[in-house]
């Protein structure tokens, strides 16, 4: 309940918070398409987490390599299916940023695989998503200097509280 309330206050869907988005039109197909894509991504990610947890006896390098290979194949399939243009960044700075993002993603996947070897999939997923919201919030403030509204800060606080309560519950139950 805390987590869901926090996420609602962070995301602020326009149909619940119409004053925050005066340009919102219920008939706009982009909003619906984005919501469907996020829902499908969540469903696929949760299934992958459970499957990886089931395969925890396999070596982390095997799981990571297989995961990355499947992502590459899927990416190229959707890029060509949807007709996206493949463009290499022109400046070396941008190229290095792409490499940095790739290395960061690889590190994330390896750490997630290791976490799933020792912990239940639902707890890893909860912590991953919750801390993702908190980190994105911090980056928004520090990097982009975009100060969020009070309701967004409250929502992030609820998400953080849910993560803390889950951690305390796990320690007490052991």
Model description:
- By secondary structure, the chain is an all-alpha fold.
- Helices cover 76% and strands 0% of the residues.
- The chain has 6 helices and no strands.
- It has helices spanning 2-11, 29-54, 60-82, 92-118, 121-142, 150-173.
- The longest helix has 27 residues, at 92-118.
- It starts with a helix and ends with a helix.
- The model has no long low-confidence stretch (mean pLDDT 80).
Which terms summarize this structure?
single chain; 0% strand; 174 residues; mainly alpha; 6 helices; globular
Terminal-residue CA separation? 23 Å
User: Quick one: how many beta strands?
Assistant: 0
- The ordered H/E elements are HHHHHH
Please outline the major beta sheet. none
Tell me the fraction of residues in β-strands, as a range: under 5%
Q: Helix content range of the residues, please?
A: over 70%
Enumerate how many helices there are, as a single number: 6
Averaged pLDDT:
80
| Poorly predicted ranges | none
Assembly type of the chains comes to: single chain
Structural class of the secondary elements? mainly alpha
Radius of gyration: 19 Å
How would the global form be characterised? globular
SSE order and pairing:
Blueprint: H1 2-11, H2 29-54, H3 60-82, H4 92-118, H5 121-142, H6 150-173
What's the quick description here?
The chain has helices at 2-11, 29-54, 60-82, 92-118, 121-142, 150-173. The protein contains 6 helices and no strands.
């Amino acid at each position: 309940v805390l987590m869901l309330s926090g996420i609602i206050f962070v995301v602020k869907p326009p149909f619940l918070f119409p004053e925050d988005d005066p340009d919102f039109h219920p008939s706009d197909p982009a909003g619906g398409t984005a919501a469907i894509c996020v829902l499908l991504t969540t469903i696929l990610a949760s299934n992958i987490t459970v499957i990886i947890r089931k395969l925890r006896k396999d070596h982390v390098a095997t799981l990571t390599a297989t995961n990355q290979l499947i992502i590459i194949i899927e990416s190229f399939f959707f890029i060509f299916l949807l007709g996206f243009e493949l463009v290499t960044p022109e400046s070396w700075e941008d190229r290095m940023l792409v490499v940095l993002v790739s290395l960061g993603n690889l590190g994330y996947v390896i750490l997630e695989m290791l976490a799933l070897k020792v912990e239940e999939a639902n707890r890893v997923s909860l912590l991953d998503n919750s801390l993702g919201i908190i980190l994105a919030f911090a980056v928004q403030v520090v990097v982009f200097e975009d100060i969020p509204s009070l309701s967004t800060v409250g929502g992030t606080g609820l998400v953080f509280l849910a993560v803390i309560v889950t951690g305390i519950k796990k320690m007490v139950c052991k």
